[in-house]
Amino acid sequence: MTTKASATWNPEAYLRFKRLRLRPALDLIRALPALPEGPIVDLGCGSGSVGEALAGFGRPLMGVDNSEEMLAEAQKTGVYDTLTQTDISTWSGETAPALIFSNAALQWVPNHADILPRLVNELAPGGVLALQVPHQNHAPSHHIWKSLAEEFWPGRIDFDDGPSVLPPANYYHLLGPLGDLSLWETEYYQVLEPADTGHPVRRFTESTYGLPILQKLEPAEKERLIQAYEAVIGSAYPSGEDGTVLFPFRRMFMILTRS
């Protein structure tokens, strides 16, 4: 996982919802076209949750991430031929890959207009760039973190170093001239089980979108923000009688085959 902020990732918190986070990656893999010869790069591999599925292609598999904590988890999977700790926004490979695969990572790096064409140029002829990013920033689950922090500490937190994506049309005009592009969105209706403490949506988002915000706060401030989030999130995502919550989550997908 790579962020614009210097956030410290917590693999345990992130993996609490491993099954739900993995499904979009598997859907993206199922949509891939035939690949040319060459290795596969899992860009922003995080804890390596997609590694086993990517290893199924039978190609050399490289994992790239800047989080030492996450790479330690990826190492435990035993499926990566190499693991490299570096910023995914500046990564460059020695061998042209058949596939650069990025699952829920590129939203954490800026300058997509520069990074994505450069990644396409890294590919082998006929190689594939496949990525998935959350497109959820304006949903209550995410926006409430930001709006409350702005209310409590106006102008103090730089939200530009949080996750962000461009409008779909921007990606179409950016990547369309570089190859055969498929671009789509899917909204997943995720069922979140009751959490041990707190609202399930808070537990889901505090380890991703909310993480850079929370890590900029003092302990008492962090607790204040969490309590305020808990006080309002249930109105947007009500719990059922059994404590489960239906959590719609939108994701954007792109597959580009290099010309």
Description:
The chain has 259 residues and is α/β, with parallel strands linked by helices. It has one domain (11-258): Rossmann fold. The chain has 10 helices and 7 strands. It has helices spanning 11-14, 18-30, 51-55, 68-77, 112-122, 140-152, 168-175, 200-205, 211-214, 219-236, and strands at 40-43, 61-65, 82-85, 99-103, 128-134, 179-192, 245-258. A 7-stranded mixed sheet has the order 3-2-1-4-5-7-6, sandwiched between helices. Helix 3 links the parallel strand 1 (40-43) and strand 2 (61-65). The two termini are 29 Å apart. Mean pLDDT is 92; it is low at 1-6.
Global mean pLDDT = 92
CATH architecture: 3-Layer(aba) Sandwich
- Report the portion of residues in β strands: 15-25%
Low-confidence segments, given as residue ranges, are 1-6
